[in-house]
Amino acid sequence: MHFFGLVNLVFMFLSMHILLLKTGLCNDNEEMLPRIGIVGAGLGGTSCAFYLRQLLGSKATIDIFEASKVGGRTAVIKINGQKFEAGGSVIHNQNKYMVDFAEKFNKKRLSRSDGIFGLYSNGDIVFETSRWTAVTLSKLLWRYGLDAYKIHDWTKNFLSKKFNRIYEFQDGGMAFTTVEDMLRAMGDELLNMTHFSLKDVLLDIGVSEKFIDELAQGVMRNNYAQSTGVHGLVGAVSLIGAEPGLWSVENGNKEISEALLQESKANFIEANVKTVTLYKDELGTGSISYEVDYENQNEKSESTETREYDIVILAAPLEGTKFKIAFADFPGPMPPFSQKFHTTVAMFVLGKVNTTTFHLDNPDDFPADLFTSQPDSFFNSIGKLSPVDTAQPEHAYEPGQAVWKTFLNKNPNQEEISSLFESREDLRLVDWLAYPEYAPNMKLPPFQLYDRLYYINAIESAASAMEMAVIGSRNVALLAYNQWFGHFDKIDEIHLQTPSADNKNSEL
């Protein structure tokens, strides 16, 4: 063989071997695996660690930092000796990832009873469902015509089919660098919905203003503490979540995060991340790394420690939180966007509702869930809670007494509390930076903030829910993996068709 031909053959062999190492076919070589730091052990952070472990194998270094409790915005509160959901409380049967996790980890479902629903406006309960389905349907037809059917048909035959494309993209290893690219791949209509208010979107499909200003407004105030002025996509996701078939996990939805963390075998660090610093190779190779400075939460001293990573994944809101992260030595502002989060107050009361305020003869006549539609109402909703554990209450409830959760936009004063509850034995207030402030044409943040620096919570600009957090986390896991191993053909390929026959026949 000619000398140069032999050299070329050797070079090709070495190149192929290096490629095999980096594509994971030789994943046992730990030098080719990235060191990954994840900030936040909520559902987004723990599920991202879970997916990364699946992609990278057992020898990859994955650290996950958490300054508070595992589970993030999925949390429980203990009242009268029993546990109740305090944060993300319901899962829908269409939430593929959450359903899969519950089955994988053998978590028992607690079905949410479809009790009486009421709508409160101008000092009265203006609409109420019945224990009998036929009566409820008659009431809906009488007050809203076919609007409820139009919403159901639209979410089932249009929205869900478009939305479900993301699962097929992710099963195929596809990832997206921005929320905008992800939505465009799922269908231009979904992206367009972020440019218009929910009210405009519903009017466009023929829903009446009465339905929008009453029921749709009530749902939005309960789910997002906002109005039908939010952009259409988050509003549509909210309406899907108001349909029957809701459930939660026994002992709290936080158990999913705890199981994901354990399954990922990530190194859990109970610490408050203070600074993420960018380091560039001084030799000019273009190589970068990150230093993460953190304070341990389980130690009395407040000494700062440092760890170095090839990849950093942010799995918590970057603005408005008490755990503020600083960014050092980046060439431009970081983060390169503003994403304002909305504070919601959840008030938990063990007591009896005020029958005088709601014009009721008996507290037992109060609906299991009451939504408000008036924009100036000081509370958004009141719902009767069921415990998520099997523990017995510390003492039996009196007639008309229950544990209630009330959503508000700010802490209530004593007069407001008394107007809702005529008696109470226990009262707790929990405030959350629960979701972004939504508006048409709002900026959709990117999943990638800088080279190998990722932001899971960008997905919340489209919609905020437990399932959305997991969609965002799997996208970031795939994006980091594809970029590290050079699978650029699996990034932002927005024109690919999904294999589903239904999706192939859908208009794009």
From TrEMBL:
Q: Give the required cofactors.
A: FAD
**Domain of life from the UniProt record:** Eukaryota
Tell me the GO BP annotations in alphabetical order. prenylated protein catabolic process; prenylcysteine catabolic process
Signal peptide limits: none
InterPro entries per the UniProt record, alphabetical: FAD/NAD-bd_sf, Prenylcys_lyase, Prenylcysteine_Oxase1
User: Matching PANTHER family, A to Z?
Assistant: FARNESYLCYSTEINE LYASE (PTHR15944), PRENYLCYSTEINE LYASE DOMAIN-CONTAINING PROTEIN (PTHR15944:SF0)
Could you say which protein family the record assigns here? Belongs to the prenylcysteine oxidase family.
| Designated name of the protein | Prenylcysteine oxidase 1-like
Q: Which source organism does the UniProt entry give?
A: Biomphalaria glabrata (Bloodfluke planorb)
